[in-house]
Design goal:
With about 280 residues, the chain is α/β, with parallel strands linked by helices. It contains six helices and 13 strands. About 30% of the residues lie in helices and about 20% in strands. Bound molecules: 3-methylcatechol and fe (iii) ion. The site of 3-methylcatechol has 11 residues, from helix 4. Its cofactor is Fe(3+).
């Protein structure tokens, strides 16, 4: 119903803004020098000016932009907008010199300090949680191939309907979120469920942009991960499922061939399983 859809945009957009504000409270912001602000702000504005001249932008279009920008803030959708359409390039630049596992964007729905779980773990989920069972296993190593004992594998994902806990109403607080500690060999076996593809809420301002431009609103199904260990660089990434209709046209441009899972029938006979190994760069 329209009421449910409205609740979704409000929860996810405003929730992501609240989460970002609370991160700022604990971590603060690093200073950006006046030289950098001068260069970056001037170049972005020049790109806007060039676009206006090239396309002879009208006052009607200028006012539509102004109204939409105001609405993005009121909806709390700046984190969603930036993570969907900008973060992938920031991630590309940030991680271009790494040799280990490829990174991907964090997106708006990470929550730190998810419940701690052993190396062989089942993610927190409802008793009647629906979806295809998925065993996600692998090993964390150094670039040289040495196991990293006790590496931390943080995982968060949407449920089988595409909803993230803490950003959709009615889900248990830590549903499908966990902080797994790998074993002595850097190994982990995580029992979870296959996530559904994710649709950007259609009723908020990001949804309005998508509709007005005639785009689609989908991200392919994905698992989110942060893998870390002392003495190594933390990697934030995502893993994807072969055959998803939106692997080729992710609205957030965050799919990489190296991040595609190899899914096979589970040895247990129930659902699917996949092995993905993480390689951490030295700090
Ligand atoms: C998501 O689930 C996501 O991962 C990103 C990057 C943006 C919106 C929703
Ligand atoms: Fe996501």
């Amino acid at each position: 119903t329209p009421a449910e859809i409205e609740a979704r945009a409000a929860d996810s957009g405003a929730g992501a803004t609240a989460a970002f504000r609370s991160k700022l409270q604990t971590e603060g912001l690093e200073d950006v020098t006046p030289e950098r602000v001068n260069t970056l702000a001037r170049e972005v504005l020049t790109a806007v000016h060039d676009t206006i001249r090239r396309h002879k932008v009208t006052y009607a279009e200028y006012d539509a932009l102004k109204a939409w920008l105001i609405q993005v803030g009121e909806d709390g959708e700046w984190p969603l907008f930036l993570d969907v359409w900008v973060e992938h390039v920031v991630e590309q630049v940030a991680n271009e010199n790494r040799h280990g596992t490829k990174g991907s964007i964090e997106g708006p729905y990470y929550v730190p300090d998810a419940p701690g779980l052993p190396a062989d773990a089942t993610l927190p989920m409802r008793e009647d949680e629906s979806g295809t069972p998925l065993l996600f296993q692998g090993q964390v190593t150094t670039v040289g191939g040495d196991p990293i004992a006790g590496a931390k594998v943080e995982i968060w994902q949407a449920d089988a309907l595409g909803f993230y806990s803490q950003y959709a109403p009615g889900l248990p607080e830590w549903n499908l979120r966990g902080t797994v500690t790998a074993d002595e060999q850097g190994g982990y076996r995580i029992h979870t469920l296959q996530p559904a593809p994710y649709q950007i809420p259609t009723d908020g301002s990001c949804g309005k942009l998508i509709a007005a431009a005639g785009w689609h609103a989908w991200r392919p199904a994905h698992l989110h991960l942060k893998v870390s260990a002392p003495g190594h660089q933390l990697i934030t990434t995502q893993l994807y499922f072969p055959g998803d209709a939106h692997n080729e046209d992710d609205i957030a441009s965050a799919v990489k061939p190296e991040l595609m899972l190899d899914i096979v029938p589970a040895e247990s006979g129930e659902g699917e399983q996949t092995t993905y190994n993480f390689v951490l760069d030295p700090a």
